[in-house]
Amino acid sequence: MSLSLQTGPATCVSEPPGDDQRAANLDGMADPATGMDVIIVSTTSPHQETYWQDRLERSRGQVARRDAIILVLCEDWPGGAGNGLGTLYALQEAAKRARLRHGVDLLQHLRCGAAIGLYHTAGKGTRLAPLPAAEYNNKPGVRLPGLLELDGDPVPITILEAVIRQTGIYAHSRSGRLSVFWGDQVFIPSREARYTPTHAVDILAQMSPMPTADQWRERGLENYGLIAVRASGDAAQVEKVAFAEAARLVASGVIGVEGGIGVSLGSFSMSAAFTEALLAEFAPELTARRGKMDTDPHFWMPLTLDRDTYVRIMVQKQESPEVAAAHYSRMQAFRSRLPDGCERLFGCVDIGTSAYWWDYGQIRGYIENTLALTAKTAEAAAMRRFFRLPECGGAGAPGVDADDRSVLVGCRIGSGRIRNSVLVDVTATRVDVENAVVVGVAAPEITGRSILLYNVLSEVPLRPADGGVRADVIPPEGEPLICCTDHSRDGGRDWYERLPGNAMSYDAIAEHNRKTDCRAATATARRRFARLAARLFHAAD
Predict the structure, then answer these.
(1) Which residues contact 156 (CB under 8 A, 6 or more apart)?
(2) CA dist., res. 353 & res. 373, Å (int)
């Protein structure tokens, strides 16, 4: 389907003068010369590996820097490596490919000052179900409201591409460092993104002074991994804890909060020396592809907490005291052998208390953060700027009664009414929607309130119930596999349940998609959409 950006007059809300730093960071994200020297993407299947290597190469200058080395690989670790060992394994495998394809010694490149960004996309996307199913299990390929140009054709930007574009602003500060990011969250820092690293490892967090017990509960801090920073700037990783436990840790001196405490984003960077030390320490596991370790509980916590606190927290996570104590001893021995330059081990990079943080990793967040584009707020203006949409929403189309909040991206609509909605890559002869998110849909008519329609190809009018969610799997031929739910449900809890109206459970659909070549299937689906779109408007004429 041919896409174009449709715009119309609207009353806008600009970012106020106090948002200068966020605006500067957005400028950096828009600069095609900004970005990592090397981009590594860890995927979950050989088909996804092929898809992303091709797509990121074709979008150079819009997502990755034009001259970046792009290395996409599939994590083939039995049972999954966890994001700790998974990071090391991805780097190790990427190094092999860099030498084979580009004649580059990746670790030497890192030692000599390259900024390397590694993006994790592993996982089934249970919280985002059923959208990943519609992308043939390609979770990072879920579409967002912006456009890229691939080989002259406008196509919607994906979650992973948005993350790579956003995180490129840290490249200037991370010469000679490996940066690791998660592929489902976008954030716009309200603090300067350029900084001088002071620690072997630093982690992104949203910092604030130590809150009161009431503030702790109001902000739900017991649900997050936290970073506590001492007056010296040295930090500690703290697992999800209640206020009373955090206060006890502060009072006993286990952690310090003179420099603040805040929610960890999980994303971190490591110096070349520390990265190589980790590779050497876990060489046995990497060679055997054995074990499962995550960064927070298995790297940062045993390196920054005392033994008793660490063992107590791990026992609460169903680890045995003996195993936890043994791992703590291993990591402390590792710390004692670290090379020069790693004396200051663990620090924090604050993204700012007024940073914008958009999580697209679950259905509710996807809907809320997409509809945030329709608001008349500074954050909505920043979001439109990031996605390179008109500064003022109001994307009307001839013959369509669209209010000045709604945003239409790459749509062809004959007539109808649109209120407070976001439509991306939609073809319909008539629409009547309100508070709706509609992405990648072709149908004669679309009617609904508070709905999410995603990747739906229909010969008949679509009239989902209020609050309905539908995302279809489009086969090369034959009828689509329909996946329905509603806003109130959790895909993770529903994963093994066959919901009313669905032919399979999400788990069964994921298995059904497992052998599908997502690159070929996506191209075929777009051709099917184009054919239906042509028929719809030929019939209307």
Answers:
(1) 3, 143, 144, 145, 146, 147, 148, 409, 410, 424, 425, 439, 440
(2) 21
pTM over 0.90: yes
Describe the chain by its helix, strand, coil percentages, rounded to 5.
35, 25, 40
Let me know: does 120 contact 83? Beta carbons within 8 Å.
yes
Maximum separation of any 2 CA atoms in the chain, in Å: 76
Handedness of CA 377, 378, 379, 383 (dihedral sign): positive
Strand partners, 72: 41
Give the residue ranges of the chain where pLDDT is below 70.
Answer: 1-18, 391-396, 539-541
294 backbone dihedrals φ, ψ, rounded to 5°? -105, 155
Residues 6+ apart with CB under 8 A from 222: 216, 240, 241, 242, 243
Query: 127: closest CA among 429, 411, 495?
Result: 495
- Asked whether the beta carbons of 218 and 158 are under 8 A apart, the reply is no
Q: Helices 378-386 and 20-30 sit at what angle, rounded to 10 degrees? A: 10
Is the alpha carbon torsion for 202, 205, 207, 212 positive or negative? negative
Question: 295: which 2 tokens?
Answer: 């960064």
> Does residue 175 come out as left (phi exceeding 0), alpha (psi in the -120 to 50 range) or beta?
beta
